[in-house]
Amino acid sequence: MAELVMIVDDSATIRQQVKSTLIDAGFEVAEAVDGADALAQIRASRHLSLVVCDVNMPNMNGIELLEKLREDGGYGDLPVLMLTTEGLPELIVRAKALGARGWMVKPIQSEHLVRAVTKLMRKSGGAQ
Amino acid sequence: MTPESHAVLAQLMTEVTTDLFAGYGVTLTYAGPTESTALPSSATVAGVMGFAGEDVRGTLLLASTEALFVAATPDRARGAGLVREWAAELTNQLLGRLKNQLYRYGVDFNVSTPTALSGDKLAVAAPASLKACAFSFLENETQVWICLDFVEDGLDLTKLRDDGSEAAREGDLVLF
């Protein structure tokens, strides 16, 4: 069974780009339009192996999503890879402290994305 | 803002714009600053995004033809009705690049959610700020127009931040 990855981004074009890339690499992909949507889906016990998450989104941004997942507890083994235009060191440090497993600055480079997702999944041992 | 800082801003704007579009296969040449802050009549799609920080706040507007935005869309992001979406995302990535560059000078700001619009005879309200500056780029004869409208409080782009730190670069990947 293919591993399930969630892409969280308010941009439909980014979601489409990531979805297409990861499906071609053999993953299944779920979509969320913002942090609140993602949180609801994660809480609904989807068998997610990894989350690719934007930072700047309305209705709960990526950092807030990390905070909520930490508050909820029980998601420590769910890798979250941030995919964003943001590059400020302070933000990267904050995301790492909140449990993010990686940070990728847009534009999306398909090979790097697939490699990062595969590596993080391997480290975490697959589906939650 | 001093003329020296304005020159730095113009240089940064040129670099981030040409680099952004080059990454998506569109080669732009800088046609120079433009006095006019009116949208070119050829522009039928525009992305808009706001930003606000301690030292600077305003909006960024990116406008061009639908054909140019389509040309700058990666294959995987193409689809019916997604031109405006991509224009908004390009505006987001453009402001993100500018933000990451300005970080070196100690400038930081939060960004809003991008939006985009399309239509014929697009027009903007004349910016109230005296600091509005527009930049024109060309892809062959197609114009790409950027207006940066902002207010600032002594923005100094002649000095880098004391600690020498820099933002992560576009395409960077860090696994923790």
Outline the structure in words.
The complex is a heterodimer of chains A (128) and B (176). Chain A has helices spanning 12-24, 35-43, 62-72, 89-97, 110-124; strands spanning 4-8, 28-32, 50-53, 80-84, 102-105. A 5-stranded parallel sheet of chain A has the order 2-1-3-4-5, with helices on both faces. The model of chain A has no long low-confidence stretch (mean pLDDT 94). Chain A contains 5 helices and 5 strands. Chain A has 128 residues and is α/β, with parallel strands linked by helices. Chain B is α+β, with helices and mostly antiparallel strands. Chain B contains 3 helices and 8 strands, in the order H-E-E-E-H-H-E-E-E-E-E. In chain B, strands 1, 2, 3, 4, 5, 6 and 7 form a 7-stranded antiparallel sheet that branches. The radius of gyration of chain B is 16 Å and the shape is globular.
List the helices and strands and how they pair.
The complex is a heterodimer of chains A (128) and B (176).
Chain A: E1 4-8, H1 12-24, E2 28-32, H2 35-43, E3 50-53, H3 62-72, E4 80-84, H4 89-97, E5 102-105, H5 110-124
Parallel strand pairs in A: 1-2, 1-3, 3-4, 4-5
Helix pairs in contact in A: 2-3
Chain B: H1 3-23, E1 29-34, E2 45-52, E3 56-64, H2 66-71, H3 83-102, E4 110-111, E5 115-118, E6 133-139, E7 142-152, E8 173-175
Antiparallel strand pairs in B: 1-6, 2-3, 2-4, 2-5, 3-7, 6-7
Helix pairs in contact in B: 1-3
Given as residue ranges, the uncertain stretches of chain A (5+ residues, pLDDT < 50) are none
- Rounded mean pLDDT of chain B is 91
State the distance separating the first and last CA atoms of chain B.
39 Å
In the sheet with the most strands of chain A, the strands line up as 2-1-3-4-5
Rg of chain B, alpha carbons: 16 Å
Radius of gyration of chain A, whole Å: 13 Å
Number of strands of chain A: 5
Helix/strand structural class of chain A: alpha/beta
Mass-distribution shape of chain B: globular
Can you count the helices of chain B?
A: 3
Order of helices and strands of chain B: HEEEHHEEEEE
